[in-house]
Amino acid sequence: MDVKIVEHPLAAARLTAMRDERSDSPRFRAALHELTMMLVYEATRDAAVAEYAIRTPVAPAKGYRLGNPPVLVPVLRAGLGMADAAQAMIPDASMGFVGLARDEETHEPYAYMESLPDDLAGRHVIVLDPMVATGGSLLRCCEMIAARGCTDIDLVSVLCAPDGIAKLAGSGIAMRMTTAAVDPELNDKAYIVPGLGDAGDRQFGAYRRF
Ligand code: PRP
Ligand code: URA
Asked: What residue stretches are annotated with the Phosphoribosyltransferase domain (predicted)?
């Protein structure tokens, strides 16, 4: 799997704000929004473009737009905080939704929502989820997308653990990952260390130490 780590001072500052336990929910959400814009910008660097003719106030010129606008798929709940930012970067994108929650004991994902176009053949899908820990949730999401015929999947995440990347890479589903960092390990509750805690809780108002 192609893993692109976005190493940029502005991205590092947003990631730091998200990691810092003193950041309240508004600060956490703002940093996630801004960082998502940067990650989506990098994830689409090689996207196909279509050329078309425009006129400037001075002369004819070439114009460009995305050749195949993607389907954005935020993974509820935590991926919701990335949806607006990704759509702001790609206004022509459409959006589907997948709802997954990890069981606290087994760490296995439970799917409670799948709202995707029936046919994703020939479509470019960008999955948005800030955290890849064991990789079980994103793998489940990619299986849903691949089952609808998609062969062009980009994953955009804030933080990954090596276990999660290995699970996705070994799945046999072709995908690319763009992330701000890969942290060293998981703790015994399958939280990323040092990580940033529970991305859903931190956006939507709860704070827990793990
Ligand atoms: C978080 C996160 C990922 C998943 C990552 O969601 O947003 O979807 O955990 O863990 P994994 O790689 O081990 O599967 P969570 O299940 O906590 O649900 P939430 O978004 O509703 O908080
Ligand atoms: N989900 C999160 O939100 N954070 C982690 O570290 C692991 C899973």
From this structure: 6-205
Q: Give the distance, in angstroms, between the CA of residue 184 and the centroid of all CA atoms in the same chain.
A: 19
Which ligand gives the minimal distance to the CA of 189? 2
Q: Is the CB of 102 under 6 A from ligand 1?
A: yes
Q: Which residue CA neighbors atom 3 of ligand 2 most closely?
A: 198
Structural contact between residues 177 and 162, judged by C-beta atoms closer than 8 angstroms: no
Nearest CA to ligand 2 atom 5: 191
pLDDT in tens, 110-159: 999 999 999 999 999 999 999 999 999 999 999 999 999 999 999 999 99
Domain ranges, ordered by start, for the chain: 2-204
**pTM value?**
0.97
CA distance 172 to 187: 27
CATH code of the domain made up of 2-204: 3.40.50.2020
For residue 176, count CB atoms less than 10 angstroms from its CB and return exposed for 0-12, middle for 13-18, buried for 19 or more.
Answer: middle
